[in-house]
């Protein structure tokens, strides 16, 4: 067990770091052939309890990959019994047609269709935004909703989300008018086609940030919220808000990371994950770097009632058993936060952050990966089932060293 004193921005947070003996179970080990290799989280459940995800490689379609043959797959994991799951490959990416290297996990609409992106190859060598639709006989059909040209429409899309009207929103890390990334919207039309609209072009630098690297989220009053990995006055990233007006969308940073040297006053740098809301309208997120030890933080943004936001540092990672480089967060119904770290000196972790008395938060390591058969480098957001179990993927490790899908029971 390891104890660390945190000096938060505006709040001193008491934390406890230590594994609590959560049950870890491997649901699937990727073999690197037709089933794929190096899975990407997040995973997603359907109404029947099946899990869906993507792999970054494998599939054996002839993609040029130094690690494992293939451009990647879309897969399903179906429960067969209490402790047994079976994997089914729904689609194998084809280099020339729809690209390869799926950069994000899949998301699902109300009709059970899956959506995601590839980062490379495809018609214009910049990947595509794809849809996978179920059909009769258990078959699935893939449709390209948008091939990224790599110019005005951007490229390297790392995040997708649906709003309440069924419109698809995304960000690109690069491209756009200034080559600093953008926020876009795809809207389905009556003829079955999807109309692409660019909502905002990042200008980069001190003004508004650049390189958004994850999905956006939606506020109660129609605002769009997200992060940029770089930019702002200190070039270390921002949290931004977009509001709709009669002339379009306006963007403004609501928090600018200071980028101070690592230490007690560092609020974190370079957020590569998005933000999520709690029921009171506060935002939560993680940074990839910065904090006391330079390996990431968890932060909270609280609206001050005057149009501004106040930042509180909830946790700074130590690169010990708590891990390093945190990924996206999720809430449980009780208001606890959960996430994973990819690890640096260690092989990654699953953690829980719980609100405590006096505005303090308690940090607990639920599982510390050992770097062998249990997996290496969990990434992306966890997904939670109705029973309170959590599911995720490791990009490496497992029986074959090519990644796993795992279950955590706190």
Q: What is the succession of H and E elements?
A: EEEEEHEEEEEEEEEEEEEEEEEEEEEEE
Q: How many distinct domains? A: 1
Radius of gyration: 20 Å
- Please, what is the average pLDDT? 89
Distance between the termini: 18 Å
Overall morphology: globular
Largest beta sheet: strand ordering = 1-28-27-26
Q: What is the CATH H-level superfamily?
A: YVTN repeat-like/Quinoprotein amine dehydrogenase
DSSP summary: helix tally: 1
Low-confidence stretches: 1-19
Kindly provide the name of the CATH class: Mainly Beta
How many individual β-strands? 28
Structural class label: mainly beta
Percent helix among the residues?
under 10%
CATH topology: Methylamine Dehydrogenase, Chain H
Described by strand count, sense and barrel closure, the largest sheet is:
4 strands, antiparallel
CATH architecture: 7 Propeller
Beta-strand content: 35-45%
How would you portray this structure in words?
With 410 residues, this protein is mostly beta strands. The chain has a single domain (23-409), classed as YVTN repeat-like/Quinoprotein amine dehydrogenase (Methylamine Dehydrogenase, Chain H). It has one helix and 28 strands. The chain has one helix at residues 95-98; strands spanning 23-29, 37-45, 51-57, 73-79, 85-92, 107-108, 114-117, 128-134, 140-147, 155-162, 168-174, 182-188, 194-201, 217-218, 224-228, 238-245, 248-256, 276-277, 283-287, 297-303, 309-316, 330-331, 337-341, 349-355, 361-368, 376-384, 390-396, 404-409. Strands 1-28-27-26 form a four-stranded antiparallel sheet, with no helix packed on it. The chain has a four-stranded antiparallel sheet with strand order 2-3-4-5, with no helix packed on it. Strand 8 (128-134) and strand 9 form a beta hairpin. The longest helix is centred in the first third of the chain and has 4 residues, at 95-98. The chain is globular and about 55 Å long. The protein starts with 22 loop residues before the first strand and ends with a strand.
């Amino acid at each position: 067990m390891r104890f660390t004193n945190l000096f938060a921005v505006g709040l001193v947070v008491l934390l406890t770091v230590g594994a609590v003996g959560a049950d870890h179970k491997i649901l699937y080990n990727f073999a690197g052939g037709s089933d794929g290799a190096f899975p990407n989280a997040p995973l997603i459940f359907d109404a029947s309890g099946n899990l869906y995800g993507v792999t970054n490689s494998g599939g054996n379609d002839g993609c040029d990959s130094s690690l494992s043959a293939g451009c990647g797959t879309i897969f399903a994991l179906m429960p067969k019994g209490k402790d047994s799951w079976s994997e089914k490959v729904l689609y194998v990416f084809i280099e020339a047609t729809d690209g390869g290297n799926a950069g994000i996990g899949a998301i699902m609409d109300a009709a059970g269709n899956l959506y995601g992106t590839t980062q490379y190859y495809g018609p214009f060598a910049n990947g595509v935004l794809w849809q996978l639709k179920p059909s009769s006989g258990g078959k699935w059909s893939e449709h390209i909703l948008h091939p990224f040209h790599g110019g005005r429409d951007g490229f390297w899309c790392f995040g997708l989300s649906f709003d309440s009207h069924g419109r698809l929103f995304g960000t690109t890390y690069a491209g756009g008018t200034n080559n600093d990334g953008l926020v876009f919207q795809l809207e389905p039309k009556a003829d079955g086609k999807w109309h692409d609209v660019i909502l905002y072009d990042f200008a980069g630098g001190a003004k508004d940030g650049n390189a958004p690297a994850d999905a956006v989220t939606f506020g109660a009053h129609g605002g769009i919220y997200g992060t940029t990995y770089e930019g702002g006055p200190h070039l270390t990233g921002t949290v931004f808000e977009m509001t709709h007006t009669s002339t379009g969308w306006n963007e403004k940073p609501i928090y600018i990371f200071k980028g101070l040297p690592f230490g007690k006053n560092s609020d974190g740098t370079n957020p590569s994950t998005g933000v999520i809301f709690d029921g009171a309208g506060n935002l939560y997120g993680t940074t990839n770097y910065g904090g006391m030890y330079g390996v990431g933080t968890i932060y909270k943004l609280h609206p001050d009632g005057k149009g501004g936001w106040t930042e509180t540092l909830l946790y700074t990672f130590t690169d010990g058993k708590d891990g390093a480089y945190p990924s996206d967060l999720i809430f449980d119904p009780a208001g606890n936060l959960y996430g994973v770290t990819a690890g640096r000196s260690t092989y990654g972790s699953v953690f829980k952050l719980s609100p405590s008395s006096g505005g303090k938060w308690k940090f607990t390591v639920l599982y510390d990966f050992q770097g062998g058969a249990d997996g290496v480098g969990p990434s992306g957001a966890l997904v939670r089932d109705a029973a309170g179990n959590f599911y995720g993927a490791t990009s490496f490790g497992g029986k074959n060293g090519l990644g796993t899908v795992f279950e955590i029971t706190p």
